[in-house]
Amino acid sequence: MRVISYNLRKHAASGELEELVSTFKVDALCIQECTTADMPEAIGHLRLADATRGNRLGLAIYYDAERFTDAHTKAFSLKKSMHDHVLSPAHERLLGTRLVDIATGHELVLGSFHAAPLTASNSLRRKQIHAAHAELLGLGGEKMTLMVGDFNYPLFTNSLTRHVRDTGFDLSLSDRKTYTRYRVFKGHFDFATSQGLKISKVQTLPRGASDHLPIMVTAEFGD
């Protein structure tokens, strides 16, 4: 299974999505910072599962309807940072969908996640990640869960890896940095957390119009 996650930088990179989907033949697409009213019902062979409604920086998930059925989708609010209270960029920072693999019957919960910006503390982002995992498990992800997105966590990722592992999840960084626009904040901003899946690789894809580089997660279902 291949899943691309991409922060579009306020919808600026939206025109790249069809080519990404076609080139890499992905099974799902998780988007952050999109204008949801302008998102199409389909991108290539992928169908829109759902998108957030009240966000200025929206989230969306697309999936291959020939491979999966979309059982249920839900958006979640997470603990707000001061940035959220002042500028209201994102009321909902997690979008989750429960998918069923038609051929095998495996159930997977897929999440598109956008953590609080760097003006917030790592402690707050860890709380958001923990809460997001709990919400996805409640959506039916007890066996297999994959959460991808912009974690805004370029520093102290070893500590975050330990924290995530303590809650039963694995954290997977990509093979190259995903954000290099500013010298001070270079690093792995975009990555994946998972449970019940074998992550074989996470690739950073070529730069487009966004300040984030898209990542592609290749995963295998567990037993």
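Next protein, fold it too.
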Amino acid sequence: MSTFLWILYAGVTLWSIISIILHGSRPTKSLSWLLAVILLPFAGSLLYYLFGVNRRKFKFFRLRQTENRKLYDEKYKNLKELDNKVGLDSIKKQKLAQLIQTSTLLAPYEGNKVKVLNGGQETFDSIFEALEKAEKFIHLQYYIFSEGDLTERFYSIFKDKIAQGVEVRLIYDSFGSFSFRGKTIRRFRDIGVRAYPMMPIRFGNLLFTLNYRNHRKIIVIDGDVGFTGGVNVSDKYIEPISDLGIWEDLHVKLEGPVVSSLHRVFVKDYHFAGKEELLLKEKYFPEISAQGTKTVQIVAAGPDSIQPAIMQQYIGMIHSAEKCICIANPYFIPGTAVMQALKIAAQSGIEINLLIPEESDSNTAKYSMFSRFEQLLEVGVTIYLRPDFSHSKMILIDGEVSSIGSGNFDYRSFEHNFETNALLYDEELTAQIQYEFDRICEGCNRLDYETFKNRPTWQRLLEGLAKFFSPLL
């Protein structure tokens, strides 16, 4: 028996090593997987098969749903485009907008009304108010749609609206919304909600989709009102049910032509998840007149994207900055490219401020973040640790451009997750967000380079272990 196990172990390990060498996309990540496979008999190979195989080259991109996404792209070209003549007032904004449009096919639109929503209570108050006014359809997409008071409020509104003839469609991530199943989902479907999971966790495709999650948070109402950002449907955003207290976060309400871009992202994902015909009809994409004066661009990317648009957006913003960069993120685990971009900016005299939660819902993520702080502090980056837990994902440059969305500064958001950000080309909105950023920083612990450099050995060890796993996060 022992001989058989040794032969099996040797065969599985050899297959894993050969696969990593042939298909590894990044040396540091490949090295991490090689060490995991060698140091963790069987378990390392299993983890690599689940989370490490580059499925861009394998079955993930031959799934039926992926063919649906390609079909969407073909039919999308026949949909009438909105008149889009945007006059961005600086080369910086023009280059950034061109980068995003080239990599995502989503253009910037002017004539929008934007409201920045700070915290779960303000976010859901605004969402429920808008849902109550729906007349034609409500389309929702969430990473986490969990049981609780918020979900019951959605259920009540959906029931009333469907009785009035409003169509309701919901897509949710089957991993993030693990509790949204069984009797709970049947209740929603019984009242007429057309609900589908993204990449459902099933035996037949488990190994090919488990590592790819839909992390987006999108609501589109009647085609002209939209919401996106970082807030999930979970009571921890409105009640202190978590060990971290109430989770803070940012969201945006959008009204105007850019909602069409947000809706295109939803419709493509809905076609990916569901079995209904395409929603590329005038009914769902009405003519949208200007509702305000703001210019906004949606950034959307996923594991089936040709370009890693979220990472490109962040690096593009860092390189575009001339004076200052402000970043708030709960999972700040940048790879080599982003780290180098930040270092170059800091050494070029650009002020960089990072706002990071002192505590995290993941100790691995926490210590992996901390492992990067010393080299950033060394080049002059200012790091603030906030005492509460903030789930916000935002980046501001030069007081001119800001981004709020679902994309983290980590490998998962850059490579494995479907993400959506709202890029705001507006000084007034950016100043509003900057004011809140600065206000929070005033009450935070600012890290000192010399003090942090002399932190305890046990903390360095935890950081080193966590950093080892960071390419796998």
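About the second fold: The two ends are 35 Å apart (CA to CA).
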